[in-house]
C-alpha cells in the first residue's frame, strides 16, 4: 500500500501541496485528476523524493520512503513513468531496460516477462530509443519501470499524444499490473482514456484534497468530473 499522509511540498519557497493525503491499495488503480497546475505532477515528484517534503510522510507497505534519498526510493519498489518519458534517447531499448533491471536488482526472467508484455520492444530491441515512435517510447518508459518489479507504479500522463491503439495497449498493461497486486497511481488529463479502468478517483485542487470517489460513480455521472477538471 502506498500512503501519503499530510504531505506538503513545492519548489523553493513556493508551496504547491498542502496537507495532501492519499492511499493506493495493493491491486488498485487510483486516478488523480485536477486542472492544470493543481499539483498532480508535483505529487508524483514528492513521492519519488525528487522534491524535498516540507512536511508529512510517504510510506510504502509501512516503510517511510520519504526519509530516503531520491536514488534509493525506486529500489524500495516504486516504479515511475514521468510525463515526457525521460528516456536515455541515445541508448538502445536493451540498454534502457538494463538500467531498470539494475535499479531493481532484477534479472533475465524479469526482462522476459516485460518483453512479453510489450512484444514491439522485442522487435526494436537493438534500436536507439530516439528512433522509436511516440507510442513505442511510452511502452519503453513503462517497461523500464516494470523492470523494478514494483509494488507501486506511478504514471504521469501515459496516454499523452498517443494514437488509440497505443492507448489501449498501455491501458491493458496497467490492468495486468493491478491483477498482479501492484498499487497504481495514475495521473491523466484525458479522463475518458482511463476512467474505464479506474477503481477510485481522487481530485486535487490547488494542492489540496478534493473528493475521492468510486470510479463507478463518475462513470454514471460525468458531470462530477466536469466540476473538478472543467472539461
Which key phrases capture this entry?
alpha/beta, 231 residues, Rossmann fold, four-stranded antiparallel beta sheet, single chain, 37% helix, six-stranded mixed beta sheet, 10 helices
Kindly describe this structure.
By secondary structure, the protein is an alpha/beta fold. It has a single domain (2-92, 151-229), classed as Rossmann fold (3-Layer(aba) Sandwich), CATH 3.40.50.300. It is built from ten helices and ten strands. It has helices at residues 40-47, 70-73, 93-104, 108-117, 119-123, 134-146, 164-179, 191-194, 215-220, 223-229, and strands spanning 2-11, 14-24, 28-33, 53-60, 63-64, 78-81, 152-156, 183-187, 200-205, 208-214. The strands form two sheets. Strands 6-7-8-3-9-10 form a six-stranded mixed beta sheet, sandwiched between helices. A four-stranded antiparallel beta sheet has the order 2-1-4-5, with helices on one face. Strand 7 (152-156), helix 7 and strand 8 form a beta-alpha-beta unit. Helix 3 runs parallel beside helix 6. The longest helix has 16 residues, at 164-179. It is globular and about 45 Å long.
C-alpha geometry: globular
Q: What amount of the residues lies in strands?
A: 25-35%
Helix content: 25-40%
Q: Which CATH class applies here?
A: Alpha Beta
| Straight-line distance between termini | 31 Å
Order of helices and strands: EEEHEEHEHHHHEHEHEEHH
Q: What low-confidence regions span 5 or more consecutive residues with pLDDT below 50?
A: none
The number of E-state strands comes to: 10
**Count of structural domains:** 1
CATH fold naming? Rossmann fold
Structural category? alpha/beta
What can be said about the biggest beta sheet?
6 strands, mixed
Strand numbers in spatial order across the main sheet: 6-7-8-3-9-10
As a whole number of angstroms, the C-alpha radius of gyration is 17 Å
The number of distinct helices, counting runs of at least 4 residues, comes to 10
CATH superfamily: P-loop containing nucleotide triphosphate hydrolases
Which architecture would the CATH scheme give at its second level?
3-Layer(aba) Sandwich
| Overall pLDDT level | 91
